[in-house]
Amino acid sequence: MKNKFTKIRLVLIIALAHFLINSSIFAQAPQKMSYQAIIRKSNDSLLVLSQVGMRISLVQGSPTGTVVFSETQTVTTNANGLVSLQIGMGTAVSLSIGQSYQGGIIAYILQAGDPGYDANVQHGLIAATSNQGTAQWGCYGTEISGADGTAIGTGAQNTIDIMNGCSSAGIAARLCGDLVLGGYSDWYLPSKDELNQLYINRVAVGGFANSYYWSSTEDNINDAWRQSFSYSGQGPSGKVYSNMFVRAVRTFVVGTFAGINWAAGPYYVKTETDLFGGTNYSITSSNELMSVPYALFSANGTSGPQGAQGPQGLTGATGPQGDQGIQGPTGATGLQGDQGIQGLIGATGLQGDQGIQGLTGATGSQGPQGLTGATGLQGDQGLTGATGPQGDQGIQGLTGASGADGTNGTNGTNGAQGIQGPAGTFPPGTVAGEMNYWNGTAWVTVAPGSYANPQTLTFCMGVPTWGPCPWSIGQSYQGGIVAYILQAGDPGYDANVPHGLIAAPSDQGTAEWGCYGQTISGANGTAIGTGAQNTIDIMNGCSQAGIAARLCGDLVLGGYSDWYLPSKDELNQLCINKVAIGGFVGNECWSSTETDNYDAWYLYFSYGYVFRTKSNAGYVRAVRAF
Questions:
Q1: pLDDT tens, 381-412?
Q2: What per-residue confidence (pLDDT) applies to 544?
Q3: Which pLDDT tens digit goes with each residue over 314-363?
Q4: What is the C-alpha to C-alpha distance for residues 324 and 336, in angstroms, rounded to an integer?
Q5: Which of 215, 384, 516, 529 is least buried, going by the fewest C-beta atoms within 10 A?
Q6: What beta strand segments (E) does 538-616 contain?
Q7: Among 528, 522, 546, 544, which residue's Cα sits nearest to residue 594?
Q8: What is the spatial distance between Cα 277 and Cα 289, in angstroms, rounded to a whole number?
Q9: Please, which residues bridge with residue 609 across strands?
């Protein structure tokens, strides 16, 4: 927009006299500065007796340098078009996420605990208003020294290190580092944690694609961190495998007027004006601050060197003697002295009078009972008494003994013989030493042992087996190596049947997951037991040759053809038991679990799962169930 503010006069009222006549040169400096300007309309006529909205900023270093203080004021011009105000007495600008500011959109404001947080200022990240396009991260196979910062505040240095260490043109860091936007040239590619803040506030910032964005954080010589803005996932991706979106950021700091270090100049006064008294600032002017009131400078400026010590003054006259002080408190009681020696024993005294009689003692216990007297003579028999009433019926008597058993009857005649049942299905042997056992539904033949290789017949969960039971992790079995045995709580677990996963003894090579940009219906199972169906769905839904699922689904190994690409949880068990299984070349593998039309789950054994672009090559290890 054309600068209509063609005539503005900056007058700093530096009231030095006030500071010189102040009663104490150590009095606190006023944290404000007088400012006057003449406001004219676009036709060069004075704007008189009108309210004007103004935003005043103090900028350090250059007219487009760092804003160290910003405030707004609404003032009224006088009859000569003059406005008078005091910088430092307005309403300090308070920023919020999503607000347009300094060439972009406020994307994040630092919080307590963030690196570099200062409670006395507002500072954070400004995002460019739109994407800078798509690009590769660059320099695949080359380690960029220093470009591994992940925290908030490290993206700018990452970008410098990338631009210095990678000469490739058009890479993501260079799109940001070479950007000049809104009058600012300090844009950079955000670090991993800074990019995550852009994702969190993506709605308020706006303009993001529902796709992947590069960070400036390198993971290793081949990969750098990127983030999906459709589901938040962060993970490493090949630096040159595909172009991803780029969004530049820059930092901002807005402090207080009282906190300005005036010795760190030069400083510029930037004014933005709304001639109608609002906040739609459209007229801008910037003028260098040529001098600063000494009181302001000394309040926050850098202290000068200490002066030399002055000569010692003359000794003053001795003053009169002071009044006597009050009496001090009584001292503590002293310690007790030592005990004196024992005196001589005195003579024996006269015998005292007899004491009074004591109380009567308690009554003694009763003596034993006397002997029983002789029995007297029997008296005459009395008259017979009247017959009493009939008594109650007595209880029932015991049951009498059982009578003797009768003689047995004669035997009946035999029944007719039943019809003969069908012949059994027990299989006949074909070789000496063969055995058969019933597995619950059919007879199963066990081959005879070998004289050349004697073994012990072992019952493993009801199954006769030559040699030890085969179900231990790391043991060779049925064409591969036992990789996992199902536990209680696993899908499909049965306490009566040992079952689990067998891994191929080595990797099947490297391959893409396949069908980048296409969603494979049904291939999203994550649990143990879902990998086989995932593999079937991938092979049916993706016609691309040589993909990871097809390397497993078409595999015939050890006489078995039911191999498949493991699901996310199945692959995790291979990672847990990787030492016992062995043979992993890259310590990383594809799973058969798709995340979206662009990515599938990929496991790095060293640090875990990531979303990996389906068009990237990765290691493959087949499994089968037993």
A1: 656 666 666 666 666 666 666 667 767 767 77
A2: 95
A3: 777 777 776 776 776 766 666 666 666 666 666 666 666 665 665 666 66
A4: 34
A5: 384
A6: 588-594, 599-604, 608-613
A7: 522
A8: 25
A9: 603
